[in-house]
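Researcher: Next entry: FAD assembly factor SdhE (Allorhizobium borbori).
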Amino acid sequence: MTGLTRTSADLDERRRRILYRCWHRGIREMDLILGQFAEKEISGFDEAELDALEHVMREEDQDLISWINGSRAVPEHMDTPMFQRIAATRPDFDPVTMDNIGAK
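Model: Predicted structure:
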């Protein structure tokens, strides 16, 4: 899987904007992690959960990746239930494009 698979037509404007931003992070690893997470979960999020997701999205991709893969400790301000849910996501990396991850 390498991109959006759900339609955003049934989402309100805020959710469509967040979903788009999740799929257009800047590095492919975060596109896949946040994009697939948001696709699966965003329609059921309440306003507080959307706020929490946007809080995570404000962080730099390189920091998020290092916290998610465990190469750096998660700082206290990011050790939240939403971050833990995202970090537990195991994206479906397409083996055909795996060599190109990060080359975005």
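Model: Note for the record: The CA atoms of residues 60 and 97 lie 23 Å apart.
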